[in-house]
Amino acid sequence: MIGCRCPVCLSPDPRDRRTRASLYVDDGVFPFLIDTATDLRSQCLREGITDVGAVLYTHHHADHILGLDDLRRFCELRQERLPIYGPAMTLEILARMFPYAFDAKAQAAAYVRLLPYPVENAFPLGKLTVTPLPVPHGQVTTFGYLLERDGRKLLAYLSDCQAVPEEILSAIRSVEVLIIDGLRDEPHPTHLTTQQAVKVARRADARQTYLTHLTHHKSHRDREADLPAGIAVAFDGLKIALD
Amino acid sequence: MIGCRCPVCLSPDPRDRRTRASLYVDDGVFPFLIDTATDLRSQCLREGITDVGAVLYTHHHADHILGLDDLRRFCELRQERLPIYGPAMTLEILARMFPYAFDAKAQAAAYVRLLPYPVENAFPLGKLTVTPLPVPHGQVTTFGYLLERDGRKLLAYLSDCQAVPEEILSAIRSVEVLIIDGLRDEPHPTHLTTQQAVKVARRADARQTYLTHLTHHKSHRDREADLPAGIAVAFDGLKIALD
């Protein structure tokens, strides 16, 4: 954190240097992002990401959207408008913030050009089926997403939530990989604590769980030491094989 | 650049790894930023910047503003709303994009809280006098800024311009340090080329000039090799002593 000299902010462990939460999904057919974190450009350069075909947005908070303009490069490489999916309110806010990105008349291939698709129900994306998972997060409802293929529940992503309602628990039950908000040990009005996230993971019977959207209150190593088997701590650059 | 494998993008020279253009001015009395580049958080962490008391905005293009939300940390450390200065249109666009940052009723100290001051003429900032320098940049007029103290023209910053009008040349004449848009060698509709920037620097009789807002078309080393004495190439982390 800027201007902080706590042991985690000064830690030499690269896993304690965190940029904003985001996920890149590449199934070899249709690569896409969940959110465009403010750090999107440096994240793409760091991970060698050279293609993005779409974005799923969870919600409109600054840390999840301010990399949007850097999608321009993927529009340029693909020579097309990128489809973006998310809650209707999120897409409306993005259109208010970045009107030039949604201007159908704008033809400059070097600029970001987006096609908004508000979603509420499951929809296909490449070979996957994507199901929005509405969850409470302070004053807003954010979307988590469940990714399925051939009847397998491959991945559930719930980056910003203060609770996981029963119907969402049912939807993600027995998911192979769960990535879930586990902000810190201390309670927070809009995010799950570590222990709340662990409880959700157990109730959902997730095969493997990763905690994300983490603060500097505890080091990566100390966090992992406190977690049960099957639950780990995500870090920048973490790669998860789904096959 | 994302998805580029040119020699500059693959260069091992750290000066060839460029984040978005921005400037931090610290006169020991009142530290401030010119623009909040998308990379603001990582730039502050990299340079150990722990205090910002104000921001001067040049214009509203994405690369110059999308770090705005990261000012929250400086609001929190100072326990105050940060004043921001710039063209009226820029501040209006920022208020449309980030309404929560300008909401006088919002009291949450952990969020970004700004006080907008549209400027046209010279104004005091700490011990400095700041003069806006309107310059053309495609469809918009951007502000450069001249910083003066005790009658000395310390610094002129002109990060985005396609030309420098005569009255601006007069205003910055004999400036000690000029930082100026020198995008690339090839012409561009909204930015100065290297040669155009060199010509402005000579006509302004700047003591020392740095080119900024640079593309990946040429390495830092090759750029510098082509420049006359008194004109250098800026790079991430460059520090300039004004005293």
From TrEMBL, chains A, B:
EC number assigned by the record: 3.1.4.55
Alphabetical UniProt keywords: Hydrolase
Pfam families: Lactamase_B_2
Database matches in Gene3D superfamilies: Ribonuclease Z/Hydroxyacylglutathione hydrolase-like
Top-tier EC class: hydrolase
Ranges for domain Metallo-beta-lactamase: 19-191
InterPro entries per the UniProt record, alphabetical: Metallo-B-lactamas (IPR001279), RibonucZ/Hydroxyglut_hydro (IPR036866)
Molecular function (Gene Ontology), one example: phosphoribosyl 1,2-cyclic phosphate phosphodiesterase activity
Protein name: Phosphoribosyl 1,2-cyclic phosphate phosphodiesterase
